[in-house]
Amino acid sequence: MTQQDANQITLETPVQFIKGVGPSRAKSFAELGVETVGDMLEYYPRDWVFLPEPVKIVDAGPNQSVCLVGIVEQTDWQPYRKVPIFEITLADETGYIRAVWFHGRYLVNQLEPGQALLVHGKVTKYKHQLQLSNPKFIVLQEDQPRGPEAFSGPVYPASAKLASWQIKKIMRSHIDEFAALMPELYDGAFLKKNELMPRQEAYRQIHDPVDEDTLTEAKRRLKYDELFLMQTGLALKRYHVQHGAPAVVMRSNDKIDSRIRKRFPFMLTEDQEQVIAEVVADMGKEIPMNRLLQGDVGSGKTVVALYAALVAVANKCQAAIMAPTEILARQHFQSIERFLKGSRVRRELIVGGLTGKKRTAVLERIQNGEVDIIVGTIALIQEDIDFANLGLVVIDEQHKFGVHQRASLRKGRSPHCLVMTATPIPRTLAMTAFGDLDVSTIKHSPPGRGEVITRWVQPPNRNDAMEFIRQRLRAKKQAYFVYPRIDSENNVDSEKTDIKAAVDEYHILNEKVFPEFKVALLHGQMTSDEKKETMADFRAGKIDVLVSTVVIEVGVDVPNATIMVIENANRFGLAQLHQLRGRIGRGQSKSYCLLFAETEDETAISRLDIMTRSRDGFEIAEHDLKLRGPGELFSARQHGLPDLKIANIVEDFDLLNLARRDAFSIIDGDPTLKQSEHSTLRQEVIARFGDKLGLVDVG
Ligand code: ADP
Ligand code: MG
Q: For an engineered disulfide with 699, which of 207, 577, 610, 672 has Cβ 3.0 to 4.6 Å away?
């Protein structure tokens, strides 16, 4: 490459034009998601190895930690020893040494005579001979370099076409040149305050660290940048939403407050009071409210929504309450009707069944300001309603979120906006995926809900558990039995043939286990009339044991059902277990959730363990996040959770907090990042998170 070419390299240069890559390797890089020099800089190693320099076998002494390179002379799997071992003899031109791996069965197909091998571990003496026990090892490919520096350093996520050492070789020869392309984002004072390593140095060190401490510093710097850029994006978005068209300033006073409270036949809970205070304060501002209200099903969110709607109505504005499905919209409408009986507040329900002239008439009245509270599905309300004076929008998203729904609803107006969700959102996610919203939380449900005891029941204790259930049934309590599948024949996945099928199990429970009780079956393939009838019988106490698939997730409320058995509980995710368990503990008396499971899977055991310890949806969601990772929990992309390459919002929570504070304070001082010292920052935020956060039109 000429000097001229080298000068032209930028972060956007395709990797194909990099020395040592070329068209064919560029394809392999593309398969790994690496298209440009910039991508390459952020193709982070998945691990780093710090090995001592290899020594000759003759120089390896007892109790030393050594690195040896040699040829595998013999291998031997010895399964019949008390502790089975896999043993090899390694040779170089100076001698031989034995290496053993306890329980090394997995090595039978990996190591064979003739291979070149690098081993790293501690030398011990066994029966007067030196050996290595459980050393780490790398099988060396033929063309792989053997020099001492070849083994230390980064380990890259590789593919069949592109090995880690090949990526490392290319990276090493260019890293200084590439890293020099990265502009610094902060001034010296900022770096010092946050103890951040310079950016270019961080990119160099992450790919070619001098030692472990420097590597730690480099990681911290790059994680901070990623979190900071994301939070700056969220802060920009928030500013943008807040400073579009202003909202109506809504006032409340003691008179309005006491008039609203009279509508509720109970005292508000402390949490409801708190949240209502937050909502009313927001509505009193010209900046549109943009608040997320989270609380388990039944925690009393609808009451908060209605309170807010009535404040809007008292301020001569309309309020729209939107639910994701028609059933939920009807439910909201019915409970609002109950509270507003005899009130002069005019309300309408907009659902699919409303058609023709009737519909036209209702839409006209809304347009003329003759309706105060409008309840309907999100789709219908967004589609075609013209409001006279929409002052508040409440969106009940139940179990799913839609960032886009929130965005498109605004249609140029700026109503106050309250989003409600029954899925507890861990703090970490609230600060990222929903980082542009204010968050209110209802932690404790209204009183009158009984204790729920949760136990993991292993196979030897099944019979005792059944006996216990029998006693509860005799005491006229009712039970749910939940299964992961409908029937064993549709079992496509042969690995899961041990899954108990609800249909089969229904017959066993009905005929053999509980012949003296009335057992019924409920599953998703029954007609909706059959389902309704079965549920009605269960509610009326005509059924003692309801065997079902997970369809009973749909909001059923049977206070006398105090037992829930979840069969193969290890197959369910935490969120689902928590939701299922929410069906019991609805009355005053004690309830029992029995998780039947036989498993040695560690993650499954952790889930069962958390379930037995906690009934707190937030705690459970936090654990879920840790066990599964944020992406999976919320199917990241769809919900606007930005991709992170190096930071982890759970593990790096403290850094996230720091970055968030810094980002929001920068946007405070320069809301659209138009100051010249922020131009690099602005460019990077838009490039990285602009699409995802809808920032293209900012500033
Ligand atoms: P969510 O919308 O969070 O699922 P709801 O607002 O529908 O919960 O409330 C669940 C049930 O609890 C309803 O029957 C409601 O009337 C009742 N409820 C709400 N708040 C209280 C309270 N402070 N005291 C007693 N019952 C309440
Ligand atoms: Mg509700």
A: 672
